[in-house]
Amino acid sequence: MSAEEQVLNYPIPTDAALEPPAEWAELRGRCPVAPVRLPSGDRATLLTRYEDVKRVLADPRFTRRLTAPDAARLSAEGGGVFSSEMAQIIPDGGEEHLHWRRLVIKWFTARRMAALRPAMTRIAEDLVDDMIKRGAPADLKASLGFPLPVYVICDMLGVPAADRDRFSYWSDTMLNLTRYDGAEIAAAQGEFFRYMSDHVAAKRAEPGDDLLSELIAAGGPEDGGLSDVQIVVTGIALLVAGHETTANMIGKMVSMLLADRSRWERLLADPSLIRTAVEESLRLDANSGFGLPRYLNEEAEVGGAVLPRGTTVVCSMAAANRDEDAFGDAAEMDLTRSPNQHLAFGSGSHSCLGQALARTELQVVLEVLLRRLPALELAVPAAELERVEGLAVGGLRTVPVRW
Which UniProt keywords are given for this protein, alphabetically ordered (predicted)? Predict the structure, then answer.
């Protein structure tokens, strides 16, 4: 086999919506630092082992500078959310990045999430009521998975949830690496930017009890706060990340738990397992999307391979989360697994800001569904579930359920 034929196309296709491609295990064992070809045709290096992925995500030499002239383009149209000009406005490293995180993360503490929990539960209850009223079969993703995180993040940002169809389209253009052309992506980003700029201006005139008003109140860069354009981009980033990833994860988690009904029965018998079941669903998610791309500023050694400066690395957290060296019986879903140091939210100073929010939403969804719809089941065989193609964050097209 020639070297050209050995270069895998990435993302690696798989037929089963909930199962990983067989290549992950092969790569971890044989070629943990693997050359791959991206949708753009450019080359990158794929990491699939837990230790390598964890180390690179915490290593400041591996940056988010995906607009560098020699960085690989993720798709023919560029890199969507990863390498748009917007992505460069939020500081990507060092003290500036830590400062930005400190200003924003106050809104995502476990304490704040505990305070939000009753409101989240009410929203979930109302959505389940509506789903029951419309009758089975229902699409759990459209009925609950998608609207719940949108309502919650809109509330946190002080943005009208009535605009959610627009956010949904704008998010999709920023997160989809294959579906839209350059002109559509640019137009959507421009509309989103104008929308959020108007929203920030309105908050400046009439502040509320929300994250954007608090960022404005902190003052500009000279007062230790953020510039207006940074506040706008922070709002966009949180709106995109805060609904799209969790909306998709709700559908995947429930599908995983219903694919083998004994898992659902176990949670019905012992709801105290909800917290560890959420973590295990995050770990076992085989369809988490593209992974995290990083650009290497200087030569570095990873997993026994020397990577030259200018290399674009793709960290597959989903492949790393199934590494037998890091997790016993890594391919099995163990609802009691603890500790569970999965990398679903990344690692190091760039780990997901909204992880406490995502965890709380996932736990609330399970609590409400187990209580209200104990007879819930998939309305199609798990093998017939279909992936959303081309999305930087993985998801299922629909999650048909009945009860």
Answer: Heme, Iron, Metal-binding, Monooxygenase, Oxidoreductase
Q: Which residues make beta-bridge pairs with 138?
A: 401
- Rounded Cα–Cα distance for residues 199 and 219 (Å): 17
Burial class of residue 301 in the structure, from the number of CB atoms within 10 Å of its CB (0-12 exposed, 13-18 middle, 19+ buried): exposed
Cα–Cα nearest to 319, from 292, 357, 337, 300:
292
> Residue 374's domain spans which residues?
3-395
CA distance 6 to 34: 9
We report the CATH number of the domain holding residue 122 as: 1.10.630.10
Give yes or no for a cis peptide into 11 (omega within 30° of 0): yes
| 400 within domain boundaries | no
DSSP state of 73: P
Q: Which of 230, 232, 180 minimizes the C-alpha distance to 201?
A: 232
Of 251, 241, 245, 243, which Cα lies nearest the Cα of 142? 251
Structure tokens at 139: 């699409």
The answer to whether the CB of 187 falls within 8 A of the CB of 181 is no
Order of strands across the sheet with 138-139?
A: 138-139, 400-402, 377-378
CA distance readout (Å), 80 to 173, 310, 390: 7, 20, 11
Number of domains within the chain: 1
Q: Are 76 and 322 in contact (CB under 8 A)?
A: no
Please give the Cα distance from 151 to 39 (Å, whole number).
33
Block mean pLDDT (10 aa), the chain, length 403 = 66 90 95 94 97 95 88 69 58 77 88 93 97 97 93 89 82 72 85 94 94 92 90 89 86 98 98 98 93 94 96 97 98 97 89 92 98 98 89 85 98
Reply yes or no: is the peptide bond before residue 339 cis, omega within 30 of 0.
yes
Q: Note whether 85 and 232 are within 8 A (CB).
A: no
pTM over 0.70: yes
Res 392: pLDDT = 65
**For position 106, what pLDDT does the model report?**
86
Residues near 326 by Cβ (< 8 Å), separated by ≥ 6? 50, 51, 320, 341
Contact criterion met (CB below 8 Å) for 318 and 83: no
